[in-house]
Design a protein that fits this description.
With 471 residues, the protein is α/β, with parallel strands linked by helices. The chain has one domain (14-186, 201-446): Alpha-Beta Barrel (TIM Barrel). Helix content is 37%, strand content 14%. The chain contains 15 helices and 13 strands. The chain has helices at 44-56, 79-84, 97-102, 120-133, 148-153, 162-182, 239-248, 259-275, 297-308, 313-324, 346-357, 364-370, 384-398, 412-427, 440-445, and strands at residues 14-20, 61-65, 108-114, 138-143, 189-192, 197-199, 209-210, 215-216, 231-234, 251-254, 284-294, 379-383, 402-406. Helix 1 (44-56) links the parallel strand 1 and strand 2 (61-65). It is globular and about 70 Å long. The termini are far apart.
Length: 471
């Protein structure tokens, strides 16, 4: 792959916004900043204003993260997480979507929900409902979970082992594809006033799913929505995570500390997509990044110093311990992060190992400092021009499609990007000035509202090879 199209035009850049229904999502301590509004996360005003701002900036979507447990790996306790507001308290992400959809026309919604604890049957209906209400603008970020505390509160001793969680997720998706794609034929709903038939029963099918984890004999209880299956997002880059993404994902969020790490991850993902019989560009890949910008370089640097004064090292290490599955309170700050085996997010550790191979060994202190703004992803500081140069360089050198932008403060960080960076990218012809029409899937890939024929989910359609639906 190259960064330019065959006519030599520079590659386009796309943005997603990364947020969560909590305070200071990935920027620990910054909820205290006088301009940060993240502590109003529990109001519709915060979310609807943000959605309108992002649509002004032609963002592809807002990606809302979620967890169902507390970060209690650091110090073997959840006290530091609770004290710092580190993703606790956290509210439900799905509930935010309808309000944001009402005040926007094009913005996509990538909502996170885990496969580990909720039965796929009610979940299928919740997502179908949102796809109807958003007129086909909903995406689902499929996560398998990484917090043992979530497992315990769901009545399990611990979470499944890392790769087993993905096997479980494979069956979870199979059930959903059967419900979303295979249960109702396109012309099942007839709304015939003369005969009094709302739906033709001959065109609604039992999915007859009988598997290792789930048994779902009946029909989907919602009628087909514009996209049927919501756009599938994924964010896990271990080998098992990439194999899962290759079969399912249409948008992938990755996090890496450097261009070299990102380039290597992108190459692996595109190879895996091809090996799964899908085009190499059939998933949009967004790299996590936080942008701190202003009119001039000096002002941006001053802003960065101001933000730094509000960060919480304890909060950052609480997050990092949860993501790595390693209690970092037991290490000195100058200790190298070594090769620790993780049952949490394996790609976090392998990224750091990759950095070590490149001669850049991270210490626990580096994690505390670098992780305090924008969490797992790097941050960059500069004027709009400087940031635009850098984004173009990253896209050209790593073959990503765009960036998943975390915030230092919200909505300030997104306002700064819309004001200082996007106009320059637009001037350079590398950033959209308007949205394509249609559903989120059509906007992202331009190949229609429904899953493309080569996608695994399409194989479960009524009459298709993998369909188990029966009349
Ligand atoms: C950018 C990014 C965002 C993620 N967001 C979430 C999230 O909101 N909730 C969650 O449970 N896991 C989240 N994860 C974790 C992964 O989705 C994944 O399920 C799991 O941690 C295993 O990852 P691995 O395949 O890299 O080991 C995120 C990971 C990345 C890189």
């Amino acid at each position: 792959m190259t960064s330019a199209d065959p006519n030599g035009a520079p590659k386009q850049i796309r943005f997603n916004a990364f947020d969560m229904n909590c305070v200071a999502h990935q920027s620990s301590g910054l909820w205290r900043h006088p301009q940060d509004r993240s502590s109003t996360y529990n109001t519709l005003e915060y979310w609807t204003e943000l959605a309108k701002l992002l649509e002004r900036g032609t963002f592809d979507g807002i990606f809302i993260a979620d967890v169902l447990g507390t970060y209690d790996v650091y110090g073997s306790s959840n006290v530091a997480a609770i004290r710092n507001g580190a993703q606790v308290p956290v509210n439900d992400p799905l509930m935010l979507v309808s309000a944001m959809a009402l005040v926007t026309e094009h913005l996509g919604f990538g909502v996170t929900a885990g496969t580990a604890y909720e039965h796929p049957y009610p979940f299928a209906r919740r997502l179908t409902t949102l796809d109807h209400l958003t007129k086909g603008r909903v995406g689902w970020n499929v996560v398998t979970g990484y917090l043992p505390s979530a497992a315990r509160n769901m009545g399990h001793d611990d979470q499944l082992e890392h790769d087993d969680r993905y096997d479980h997720a494979d069956e979870y998706l199979e059930v959903l594809y059967k419900l979303w794609e295979g249960s109702w034929e396109d012309d099942a709903v007839v709304k015939d006033r003369e005969s009094g038939v709302f739906t033709d029963p001959a065109k609604v099918h039992d999915i007859q799913h009988q598997g290792k984890h789930f048994s779902v004999p009946g029909i989907h209880i919602s009628e087909p929505s514009p996209q049927r299956t919501p756009v599938i997002y994924q964010a896990g880059a271990s080998s098992r995570g990439i194999a899962f993404a290759a079969g399912n994902a249409e948008a992938i969020f990755i996090a890496g500390p450097s261009k070299e790490v990102l380039k290597s991850t992108v190459g692996k993902i595109r190879d895996a997509l091809e090996a799964a019989g899908r085009p190499r560009d059939s998933a949009k890949i967004y790299a996590l990044l936080t942008i701190i910008t202003d009119e001039t370089s000096e002002k941006a640097q001053a802003k960065y110093q101001d933000y730094l004064s509000y960060t919480s090292a304890e909060g950052a290490l609480t997050f990092m311990s949860g993501w790595m599955g390693v209690d970092l309170s037991k290490y000195e700050l100058d200790e190298p992060v070594g090769n620790v085996k993780s049952n949490a997010i394996q790609s976090v550790l392998s990224n750091l190992e990759h950095e070590k191979e490149l001669g850049r060994e991270w210490t626990v202190g580096d994690l505390a400092r670098e992780g305090a703004i924008g969490g797992l992803g790097p941050y960059v500081v500069g004027s709009g021009e400087e940031i635009a140069d850098l984004l173009q360089e990253w896209v050209a050198e790593t073959d990503i499609d765009g960036f998943n932008l975390a915030y230092a403060i919200t909505p300030g960080t997104f306002e700064d990007v819309v004001e200082h960076v996007i106009p320059i990218l637009r001037e350079r012809g590398v950033y959209p000035t308007s949205y394509a029409e249609g559903t989120l899937r059509e906007k992202l890939h331009g190949r229609g509202d429904r899953l493309p024929a080569e996608h695994k989910g399409a194989g479960y359609r009524w009459g298709a090879a993998n369909s188990t639906a029966q009349a």
